[in-house]
Amino acid sequence: MPRNPDPRDQGPKPPFPDQQQSHPGTVKQLDPPADHGESSYTGTGKLSGQVAIITGADSGIGRATAIAFAKEGADIVLSYLQEEESDALEVFTLIHELGRKAVRLPGDIGSLDYAKSLVAAAMKEFGHLDIVVNNAGFQMTHESIEEIPASEFEHTFRTNVFGTFFLTQAALPRMKPGGCIINTTSIQAFEPSEQLVAYAATKAAIANMTKSLAKLASNQGIRVNAVAPGPVWTPLIPSTMPSQKVKSFGDNTLFKRPAQPVELARIFVFLASAEASYVSGEIYGATGGRTPL
Asked: I need a labelling partner for 193 at 20 to 30 A (CA). Which of 54, 145, 156, 241 fits?
């Protein structure tokens, strides 16, 4: 029987090459490239016939989750920013090559009208909605609180917290028993960095909201959970962090590396599947051993 792989060797380790990207970044410029599961993930039909909305689906965790969901048999509404169209088109094309259907719908998840349009698109194209993945996120690092513009602080909350709330509010009335909602929180919710004051606060809010929503949604037979990643190698890193932090990114975990997006996608698949039928209101950590207890 083959053994499980050594977790220390499942992705590149720092130091990484010097690199900076303009926000929101692109997977095409990541060095080394990230593994989104294009060839490394194998589906087994866990989500056959289901329909999912995934925000932030162009890159990183959202991209890997979209690919994994498609390999598991789901059709997908892809949500992303207009400036991320090139990366999103790659995901869209791959999903169709896998024999599944996808809808591309760019927009600002911080808008209630846009959130409603995602649900409307799912219902119009597929006739039902089974899974919602609230993954889109915004962050910027700052060395002092004085550096944080009020507009940026508000934008961080509008994207991360308001976006999660708006899409959940729009989706819940259209979902049937057995459906699920999966939010993306972070280790920052429990071990906040002084350079990520706004972002960490939003992730704490999402963790808290997940618990409340799980109670509300249980009345409809719908499960709500969240995933709390540690460092993950995505375009968000070189587009929002100083070069020195990018170079050493992930070296503070037990495995001395950041996670690859496909490693997080496997958790989203589990939480979306019938295998997690008794799991709701939980925060699943995937931090390379850094989850505080």
From this structure: 54
